[in-house]
Specification:
The complex is a heterodimer.
Chain A: H1 3-29, H2 41-78, H3 87-102, H4 112-150, H5 157-197, H6 200-205, E1 209-210, E2 225-226, H7 229-260, H8 263-278, H9 281-302, H10 312-337, H11 340-348, H12 353-382, H13 385-390, H14 408-416, H15 425-456
Antiparallel strand pairs in A: 1-2
Chain B: H1 3-10, E1 21-32, E2 35-46, E3 50-54, H2 61-68, E4 78-86, E5 89-90, H3 98-104, E6 105-108, H4 119-129, H5 136-149, H6 153-156, H7 169-182, E7 187-191, H8 199-212, E8 217-221, H9 225-231, E9 234-239, E10 242-248, H10 249-254, H11 259-265
Parallel strand pairs in B: 3-8, 3-9, 6-7, 7-8
Antiparallel strand pairs in B: 1-2, 1-4, 4-5, 9-10
The chains are: A mainly alpha, B alpha/beta.
The complex binds adenosine-5'-triphosphate (ATP) and magnesium ion.
């Protein structure tokens, strides 16, 4: 039996358990009203189903995770002299044994020891697999039996089920949190390794970025410089350009939609603006690179300006268009959340519509709008695809938006594309950049959330 | 306190000779979309008196009140027919300046709605947009007078910079009244101004209304018949979009002419 077949079998058993628990509960109630039971029959059903399915599935999962390493360990122990091998050679040996058993190409001559090990491996795997099937099915059936034995009229199935469901959810959220923590920790550790090769001050304050390190010791001209200032400057310039486009357009369209437009126009316009957020960024990217950038270059040439074909301007503008809906949609929501009574109050004093908007609605919605802008900013800083396609690769330190600049995300991509040693300074620099980027966007998001939360406390 | 007692103790006797109408409504019909909310309402409001509008929920009291300063303009699909005059000018004639009308006819709402600004700025808001103060000293003066008239000055004079939303419910409502009188209107409309307040705050507002009568014409919607009896000189009873009866408060509560009025004030429906 395949493991997937096994899992399906357990699920069928679980369904069967649900049905059985429910009908058993109905039987317990007999001809009387269902309220003689402490819990509704569906809770009895869920209870039996959970006891039948959950332990068995957990066992399968554990088995599938631990089985390979356990078997390997046993097999390797059985090979004479294997323990003396170096870790790299040992893993090669294990890979060979695996390849042998699955019929793949093996990197060495098949000697008798290897063949024996392969057979050993096969035998163990067969035994383990059979054991898994028997054990899990037994546990499923036993759980079903136990749970069914518990069922009485007064049995608190509802409370039990709620408790189990809660535990399952806690576990799920713990996994999510642990994953995040793991990612952050790995970022931090790799960054620390990077700082063994390059000093923190050079990285944070250096004005020169050219991460080409020598592959061979005698290579000339590629000493590598890891001053991140130019690429952060580029990131901020493109983000700034994007915000210059997105904030006014987004904010004004939000004001129009929430204060002036009729409900019909709003019902059409708002989803249409939100479509902008749904366009894949790669589409924006080639739009920027193939349409907007050449347009700027030609216009610039006509006006006698030197415009690079990968100008910061083009990337920033297109990115601005992309984040318009982030600004407009959120701002529109917060302005709609300003209570009608405030508008009435202003109108009743004789304020005109624009006075009401300027003096009452915008101030009341300001924290929410600030939050929206900050979230959009952090989105722009982390945006990758548009800048990879439309911004340049050269780390120019310039304030001229017509020149090519590069961004943190672009550099991370170029650092990791292609062949390189995993622990070269060049590769590790990507982690350091990622960490700084992460800290910046995290900070922005935290400020934004705090501001928005403070706002929402006021009106409910 | 019963309604009859309230009338005896609180309602001053009317002098019939000085009848001057501040607001006159003639054949007012209001529609929300296709639904008609008011049917040919004829109602006059006397100057420098408190007129209360009573009636069961949904009968159109707020609708009529909001017609008087054209707050219905804000509502989509709301249409007003007929004629409403303030000081003899039709307020629905084309070309009328709504901003100027609302400066003359102020409004206080059911739920206190101070702006999320300081106490000072809340009061100063109206005078500022209407350019009623030529310098900051004059504005200070307006703010102080309005707060004094609303009986709030002593409580807030040391914290004019604090946000208006930080006051208690009753204080907020008095702040809203002060905000309305700061633009020096002639008429103040109040839509259930005490329904969100406790009895003590209610009593303060009622006292205040009685004092304000000296300078302003007041129209108040209320669900409390005791309140109508205590604060108003004239009462109009609305029922299902029509004015069933209108008259001196003491008459409405002691000898109503219409059976529906009697049923309502004796608590048989509504
Ligand atoms: N914005 C609106 N849109 C549609 N119909 C409305 C609107 N406002 C009020 N109405 C309707 O008009 C009628 C009168 O409403 P109005 O608010 O004037 O009643 P009211 O006498 O003030 O009631 P209450 O004492 O409950 O405040 C009601 O039937 C109501 O459903
Ligand atoms: Mg009302």
């Amino acid at each position: 039996m395949d493991s997937s077949v096994l899992i399906v079998t357990i699920l069928i058993l679980t369904l069967f358990g649900y049905w059985m628990g429910r009908s058993r509960a109905r039987m317990l109630a007999g001809t009387e009203h269902l309220s003689v039971l402490h819990s509704l029959p569906s809770y009895h059903g869920s209870y039996v189903a959970l006891w039948c399915g959950l332990p068995a599935l957990l066992l399968v999962a554990a088995w599938l995770i631990f089985e390979p390493s356990l078997i390997e360990h046993i097999v390797v122990e059985a090979i004479p002299g294997a323990r003396a091998l170096e870790p790299a050679q040992l893993s090669l040996l294990i890979a060979d044994i695996r390849n042998l058993t699955s019929g793949n190409i093996v990197s060495r001559e098949i000697d008798p020891t290897l063949a024996a090990a392969g057979e050993h491996y096969n035998a163990l795997q067969t035994i383990s697999h059979a054991a898994m099937i028997v054990l899990t099915l037994a546990i499923a059936v036993y759980g079903l039996y136990l749970a069914r034995k518990n069922q009485t009229r007064g049995f608190r199935a509802r409370n039990r089920v709620e408790k189990i469901v809660r535990i399952v959810m806690v576990v799920a959220s713990t996994i999510a949190i642990l994953t995040t923590v793991g990612i952050i920790l790995s970022l931090i550790f790799e960054t620390l390794r990077f700082f063994e090769k390059v000093t923190v001050t050079e990285f944070l304050f250096g004005l020169n970025w050219s991460p080409q390190t020598a592959l061979r010791a005698e290579q000339v001209g590629s000493s590598g410089a890891f001053g991140a200032v130019p690429i952060f400057a580029g990131t901020f310039m493109i983000t700034g350009l994007a915000m210059i486009v997105a904030v006014p357009i987004g904010l004004l369209s939000a004001i129009y939609m929430s204060e002036y437009a009729g409900p019909k126009f709003r019902a059409v316009a708002k989803p249409m603006l939100e479509v902008l957020a749904g366009i894949p960024t790669v589409v924006y990217g080639f739009f920027a690179a193939l349409t907007v950038a050449p347009f700027f270059r030609q216009t610039g040439e006509a006006a006698g300006l030197m415009v690079s074909s990968e100008s910061a301007l083009a990337a920033g503008m297109v990115m601005g268009v992309m984040i318009i809906p982030f600004v407009s949609s959120l701002s529109d929501d917060v302005m709609n959340a300003v209570p009608q009574s405030l508008r009435d109050g202003a109108y009743a004093l004789g304020a005109t519509q624009s006075e009401t908007i300027k003096q009452v609605i915008l101030p009341a919605a300001l924290p929410g709008i600030v939050g929206a802008v900050l979230l959009a900013t952090s989105r722009a800083i982390g945006e990758t695809m548009i800048v990879v396609m439309a911004a340049g690769l050269a780390a120019n330190l310039t304030a001229n938006p017509l020149e090519a600049v590069t961004t943190v995300t672009v550099q991370i991509v170029t650092l990791l594309v292609g062949d390189q040693e995993f622990d070269s300074a060049k590769t590790l620099a990507a982690f350091a950049l990622g960490l700084v980027l992460f800290v910046i966007t995290l900070g922005l998001n935290m400020i934004a959330l705090r501001v928005v939360r403070k706002y929402s406390e006021k009106y409910d | 306190m019963s309604v009859a007692e309230a009338i005896k103790t609180e309602t001053p006797a009317e002098k019939p000779e000085q009848v001057s109408h501040k607001i006159t409504g003639k054949d007012v019909c209001v529609y929300y979309g296709d639904k008609q909310a008011l049917f040919d309402v004829n109602l006059d409001v006397r100057e420098k008196q408190v007129t209360s509008l009573i009636g069961p929920s949904g009968c159109g009291k707020s609708t009529f009140l909001r017609c008087i300063n054209r707050m219905n303009d804000v509502i989509d699909g709301c249409r007003v027919e007929g004629e409403i005059k303030v000081d003899g000018t039709d307020i629905y004639r084309s070309g009328l300046d709504v901003v100027e009308l609302r400066a003359r006819v102020g409004m206080v709402f059911q739920k206190p709605n101070p702006f999320p600004k300081s106490i000072y700025d809340n009061i100063a808001y109206g005078p500022r947009i209407h350019g009623q103060a030529s310098d900051s000293a004059e504005l200070d003066q307006i703010v102080e007078t309005s707060l004094r008239r609303a009986g709030l000055w002593e409580e807030v004079k040391d914290r004019l910079d604090n946000p208006g939303t930080g006051l208690s419910g009753g204080q907020q409502q008095r702040l809203c009244i002060a905000r309305a009188i700061a633009v020096n209107p002639e008429v103040i409309l109040m839509d259930e101004p005490c329904s969100a307040l406790d009895p003590i705050a209610t009593a303060r507002i009622e006292e205040l209304i009685d004092e304000l009568r000296e300078k302003f014409t007041i129209v108040i919607v209320t669900h409390s018949m005791q309140q109508a009896a205590r604060v108003s000189q004239r009462t109009a009873f609305f029922h299902m979009g029509v004015v069933v009866e209108e008259g001196a408060t003491s008459d409405i509560f002691t000898k109503p002419q219409d059976g529906r009025t009697l049923d309502y004030i004796t608590g048989r429906f509504g």
